[in-house]
UniProtKB/TrEMBL annotation:
<dbReference type="InterPro" id="IPR010982">
    <property type="entry name" value="Lambda_DNA-bd_dom_sf"/>
</dbReference>
<dbReference type="Pfam" id="PF01381">
    <property type="entry name" value="HTH_3"/>
</dbReference>
<dbReference type="GO" id="GO:0003677">
    <property type="term" value="F:DNA binding"/>
</dbReference>
<protein>
    <submittedName>
        <fullName>Transcriptional regulator with XRE-family HTH domain</fullName>
    </submittedName>
</protein>
<dbReference type="InterPro" id="IPR001387">
    <property type="entry name" value="Cro/C1-type_HTH"/>
</dbReference>
<feature type="domain" description="HTH cro/C1-type">
    <location>
        <begin position="8"/>
        <end position="63"/>
    </location>
</feature>
Length: 196
């Protein structure tokens, strides 16, 4: 996969922008643009990436993944199983480290968005999330969970004795593990639709 820095430069030149013009559109200095392009700054926050994609006039997915013939398209997240990536045509993406610096993650990811008409905690209609399939708890955070035969998003953490704890978005109630609960994937990045 191409690194993000050269892709930013390529897209800037494609948009016929100099560094100063792009910097003004994104709300950073032209030195910051130089650092991003050279790779001197490797961690770019999600809000800046969304602003960068908008300023470059390209979809966020093109900024993240580049332009390749096998480019992954977002998969629909449904409340009914199976997991979206179990479709044989599902395209994987690689998440550049600079997009998920707080995550301790390596491996395949899939871009997901809620199917129109369905709602999920923590992600709204039109939001885009990168989910890494796993049935193993890796670290506290948001996970795609199957519970009582339905998909949901829950904040998952470990209790004092190591037991998994599940929490909905607008609830103080922490629910413990039950035999009908299983982890499907970890959300490693999230982009809000209103920012796109």
């Amino acid at each position: 996969m191409d690194s993000l820095g050269p892709r930013i430069k390529e897209l800037r030149l494609e948009a016929n922008l100099n560094k100063a013009a792009l910097a003004r559109r994104v709300g950073v200095s032209d030195v910051t643009i130089s650092y991003w392009e050279s790779g001197a700054i490797k961690q770019i926050g999600h809000e800046r990436l969304v602003a960068l994609a908008e300023a470059l006039g390209c979809p966020l997915s093109r900024l993240i993944e580049g332009e390749s013939s096998g480019r992954a398209k977002p998969l629909y997240l449904r409340s009914d199983p199976p997991a979206p990536w179990q479709d044989p045509g599902a395209g994987r993406i690689e998440m550049p480290f600079e997009l998920v610096p707080a995550q301790e993650w390596e491996g395949d990811c899939f871009l997901l968005t809620p199917v129109p008409g369905e709602t999920f905690d923590f992600i709204a209609a039109g939001d885009l999330v990168a989910v890494a399939p796993t049935e193993i708890f890796r670290q506290t955070g948001l996970y795609l969970v199957e519970r009582e035969g339905r998909h949901c998003i829950r904040r998952v953490s470990q209790g004092p004795t190591g037991e998994l704890q599940f929490q909905a978005e607008e609830s103080d109630e922490v629910v413990g593990y039950t035999p009908d609960t299983r982890l499907l994937g970890k959300l490693v990045a999230r982009w809000r639709a209103e920012a796109l």
